[in-house]
């Protein structure tokens, strides 16, 4: 009895302490897109490029400020050299220190700095549009991959339902075959159909896993067979786009980051041309310099007093009488070393002034830079025009595909309704023995294929509609 109670208590403890199994997490379309935008390598690299353009923009603005640089040096001298304090030759060993400060600012350089600021600002804005374009491309690709997973999942469900129906017919015919109520060929034919349905399940499962893998790659996350996606309301998600291609194209010109990026790069190239042209103008600069030094040989004496002393000389003063000559003698203390700080303060030297640099002849290098800038501007203009042309062509093609997908979807809907009714009648007739297995399977295959075509047509229509929504700048989810 005690053993039973103990065992019961252990079982209760295990049940209570065990962690509940967490339910499978279902990802929504928004979560997939946000995950992709956070992890996708192309998006992250484009963001780094944009940050680099931002640094260039900030540096171009900082180039308007003066520059300041300092220098310091310490030398140890042996043998004959020039004492930097007295500027006289010496043959003693000594050490010396030098300190300098330089500063300058460009006052005028043909508006080169101002135009370079505008150039880098436009380039930065273009890189932001490039980053946005990469994110937009990833968003539409994730939506397409998301729908592909849902389509593959629906096809897998349909394949399993079809196999289930075939399996039930096989079970029914096996019972009838034991009773000798059917032809053995009918059972064999249904078994072959059932095996084919099992193969369809395997193919559908492989397509589903491939679609999941593609979605995981876009999101840059580890692949998981347990990845589950939230179903979406296809009736509201895939609303038909009734706008004409011309209207969609005009909306794309105003909304697509791709178009804004090429326009900004063209404007940046125009400013780059002005930067090159500014190199033909003189450059006016203002500079300031300060310098001081120290020498270990520097000495100085302190003044004590002045004595009035006679000399051995004499002089006549208004007659023939000689008078002794006296002189003044200043008295100083013995030379002593001048302190390090005192030397630096006493030896300060400063200068400032203006410099005008006039380009006269530099082997036409600046002219060549201007020609290169003009070629880059023409290239940017060609890219901008070609981008618009290709955009118009892509929209026309997407519109034709959407109209065609819409027509296929409607035709398949009618086909499904027709085959659904014929299959219902064929199933009743087959169960009653009015038709053989070949006739039954022919109608069943028509019905199954119509259902598969409906799934493909439905998702294809939604995909085509979303592509047009992307071009028009409409919300994609």
Q: Which short descriptors sum up this protein?
A:
single chain; 477 residues; alpha+beta; 4-stranded antiparallel beta sheet; 11 helices; 63% helix; elongated; disordered N terminus
Q: Which bin fits the share of residues in helices?
A: 55-70%
Strand content: 15-25%
| Mean pLDDT across residues | 87
> How are the strands of the biggest sheet laid out side by side?
2-5-7-12
End-to-end distance, in Å?
A: 64 Å
Tell me about the largest β-sheet: 4 strands, antiparallel
Number of helices: 11
> How many strand units?
12
- State the low-pLDDT regions, or none: 1-23
Q: Nearest-angstrom radius of gyration?
A: 46 Å
Shape: elongated
Name the helix and strand elements from N-terminus to C-terminus, one letter apiece. Answer: HEHHEEEEHHEHHHEEEEEHEHH
Structural class: alpha+beta
Protein described:
- By secondary structure, the protein is an alpha+beta fold.
- It has a domain at 299-337.
- 63% of the residues lie in helices and 18% in strands.
- The protein is built from 11 helices and 12 strands.
- It has helices spanning 2-17, 29-39, 41-62, 112-178, 184-219, 234-237, 245-255, 257-278, 340-346, 365-431, 437-472, and strands at residues 26-27, 67-77, 81-82, 89-90, 94-108, 228-229, 283-295, 299-300, 303-316, 322-332, 336-337, 349-357.
- The strands form 5 sheets. Strands 2-5-7-12 form a 4-stranded antiparallel sheet, covered by helices on one side. Strands 1-6 form a two-stranded parallel ribbon.
- α4 packs antiparallel against α5, α4 (112-178) packs antiparallel against α8 and α4 packs antiparallel against α11.
- The longest helix has 67 residues, at 112-178.
- The radius of gyration is 46 Å and the shape is elongated.
């Amino acid at each position: 009895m005690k053993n039973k109670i103990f065992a019961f208590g252990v079982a209760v403890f295990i049940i209570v302490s065990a962690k509940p199994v967490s339910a499978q997490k279902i990802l929504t379309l928004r979560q997939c897109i946000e995950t992709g935008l956070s992890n996708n390598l192309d998006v992250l690299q484009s963001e780094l490029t944009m940050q680099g353009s931002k640094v260039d923009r900030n540096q171009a603005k900082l180039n308007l400020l003066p520059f300041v640089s300092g220098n310091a040096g310490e030398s140890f001298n042996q043998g004959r050299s020039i004492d930097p304090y007295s500027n006289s030759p010496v043959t003693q060993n000594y050490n010396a220190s030098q300190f300098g400060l330089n500063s300058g600012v460009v006052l005028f350089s043909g508006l080169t700095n101002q135009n370079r600021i505008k150039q880098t600002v436009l380039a930065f804005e273009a890189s932001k549009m490039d980053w946005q374009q990469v994110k937009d491309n990833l968003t539409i690709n994730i939506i397409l991959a998301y729908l592909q997973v849902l389509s593959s999942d629906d096809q897998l469900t349909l394949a399993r339902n079809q196999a289930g129906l075939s399996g039930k017919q096989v079970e029914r015919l096996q019972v009838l075959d034991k009773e000798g109520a059917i032809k053995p060929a009918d059972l064999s034919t249904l078994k072959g159909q059932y095996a084919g349905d099992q193969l369809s399940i395997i193919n559908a499962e492989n397509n589903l896993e491939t679609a999941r893998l593609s979605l995981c790659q876009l999101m840059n996350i580890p692949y998981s067979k347990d990845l589950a996606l939230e179903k979406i309301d296809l009736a509201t998600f895939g609303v038909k786009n009734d706008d004409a291609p011309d209207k969609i194209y005009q909306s794309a010109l105003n909304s697509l980051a791709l178009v804004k990026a090429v326009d900004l790069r063209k404007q940046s190239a125009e400013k780059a041309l002005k930067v090159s042209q500014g190199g033909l103008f003189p450059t006016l600069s203002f500079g300031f310099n300060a310098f001081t030094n120290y020498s270990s040989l520097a000495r100085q004496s302190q003044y004590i007093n002045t004595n009035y002393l006679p000399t051995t000389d004499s002089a006549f003063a208004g007659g023939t009488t000689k008078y002794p000559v006296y002189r003044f003698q200043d008295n100083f203390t013995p030379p002593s070393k001048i302190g390090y700080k005192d030397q630096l303060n006493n030896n300060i030297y400063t200068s400032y002034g203006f410099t005008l640099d006039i380009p006269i002849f530099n082997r036409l290098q600046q002219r060549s830079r201007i020609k290169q800038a003009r070629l880059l501007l023409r290239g940017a203009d060609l890219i901008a025009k070609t981008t618009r042309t290709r955009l118009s062509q892509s929209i026309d093609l997407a519109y034709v595909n959407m109209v065609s997908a819409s027509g296929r979807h409607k035709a398949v809907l009618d086909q499904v309704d027709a085959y659904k009714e014929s299959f219902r009648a064929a199933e009743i007739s087959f169960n009653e023995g009015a038709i053989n297995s070949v006739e039954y399977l022919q109608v069943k295959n028509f019905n199954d294929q119509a259902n598969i075509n409906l799934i493909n047509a439905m998702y294809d229509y939604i995909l085509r509609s979303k592509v047009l929504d992307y071009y028009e700048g409409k919300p994609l989810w």
